[in-house]
Amino acid sequence: MPLLIVGAGFVILLILIGKFKLHAFLALLITSFAVGLLSHMNLLDILDSIIKGVGDTMGKVLLILAFGAVIVAIFTLGLRKGNSMDKVMATASSSIGAVSMIVLIIAAGGGFSQVLKDSNVIRTFVPSQIHST
User: Fold this and answer.
1) Residue 10 lies inside a defined structural domain of this protein
2) Looking at the domain assignment, is residue 38 inside a domain?
3) Long-range contact list for 18-21, CB < 8 A, 24+ apart?
4) What span, in angstroms and rounded, lies between the C-alpha atoms of 70 and 83?
5) What is the pLDDT of residues 8-24, one digit of tens each?
6) Exposure string over 51-83, b if 16+ CB within 10 A, otherwise e
7) Is residue 131 part of a domain?
8) What residues make up the domain containing 102?
């Protein structure tokens, strides 16, 4: 049964992204809910799992490091090289948008992973020594 649940989850994910052209972040969140429901998890437990997975993946340290890197890059690669603030901000804006989407997709993957762990579906595929922590 767990193999069918994971298979159904990936089929749902592929359909949402491929056929309906849904953003990967939203598709992963919807798939996480679907896998949780197929595993007979309570709706609040599914939501808690997704929030925990997303939060653990993103973390506060990631945000601090990302903002620090942007500030250092603006100074060293932009202003110090003689570029105008407008040019530096235009470059940073286009770059930050793409990076933030990648971070959101990775975070949603963390939520999906947490749902698999909390629903015990993952125990079928991974030896207990690995996910006991």
Assistant:
1) yes
2) yes
3) none
4) 16
5) 999 999 999 999 999 99
6) ebbbeebbeeeeeeeeeeeeeeebeeebeeeee
7) no
8) 2-124
